[in-house]
Write a structure and sequence with these properties.
232 residues, alpha/beta, Spore Coat Polysaccharide Biosynthesis Protein SpsA, Chain A, 7-stranded mixed β-sheet, two-stranded parallel sheet, 19% strand, globular
């Protein structure tokens, strides 16, 4: 199997059938063998059940977590279930365009990169339908981590990497920016950014609140400590 795509979910019942159909349509059109791993935190809207019902149509694994909450820990649990040579992460809310998956896979398959990001902040990328406060907070966060990486969109949640990138890493289950953590802890030297247009969710409510922002800031602080402690 070439790719395993991990999608953490919470109350995405309306979005999950649409995004899953789109992902597998793109994979079929590009002759890519892959699986999707849904990791659901026991959604009250029963997202996990809807995902289970899609198994008859698509190559899907579903993990319903009854005793855990949080995006990063969900993604880490998804990594443990992955069978692919290349592992990816994306959101369920259709903010990340599935049609860009082949373009993100390209640099890894051609051995030009070992970590590829769907980037909002390089030429050709952008954001649609975001309120000003979310645009500002996202830019501030990107600036805040300049001491950790020169990647333009290090807080992105749409990325792919070779399985070997995370072998031996101790990933934290805290925070929401697992991609940034992988870049920092693995010291990826060949990170590629592919432009995407990020669109605000179609259905459901954003999970971004003050508690999420504060946890992200704490996590960034921890990563700085890790980086500079390692540098001696």
């Amino acid at each position: 199997m070439l790719i395993s795509l991990v999608i953490p979910t919470y109350n995405e019942a309306e979005n999950i059938p649409i995004i899953i159909d789109k992902i597998f349509s793109v994979l079929r059109q590009n002759c890519v063998d892959g699986e999707v791993i849904i990791v659901d935190d026991d959604s009250p809207d029963r997202t996990w059940e809807i995902a289970e019902n899609l198994k008859s149509k698509h190559n899907i694994k579903v993990l319903r977590r009854l005793d855990k909450k949080g995006l990063s820990s969900a993604v880490i649990d998804g990594f443990k279930m992955a069978s692919g040579e290349i592992i990816g992460v994306m959101d369920a809310d259709m903010s990340h365009p599935p049609e860009k998956i082949p373009e993100l896979l390209g640099p890894i398959i051609s051995n030009k990169s070992d970590f590829v990001i769907g980037s909002r902040y390089i030429e050709g990328g952008g954001i649609e339908n975001w309120p000003v406060h979310r645009r500002v907070s996202s830019k501030i966060a990107a600036v805040a981590v300049r001491g950790l990486t020169d990647v333009r969109d290090p807080m992105a949640g749409f990325f792919f990497f070779r399985r070997g990138v995370i072998e031996g890493l101790r990933l934290s289950p805290h925070g929401f920016k697992i991609g940034l953590e992988i870049i920092v802890k693995s010291r990826c030297k060949n990170v590629t950014e592919v432009p995407i247009i990020f669109r605000d969710r179609r259905y459901g409510e954003s999970k971004l609140g003050l508690s999420v922002i504060l946890e992200d800031l704490r996590h960034i602080a921890r990563l700085y400590l890790i980086r500079y402690m390692k540098l001696g």
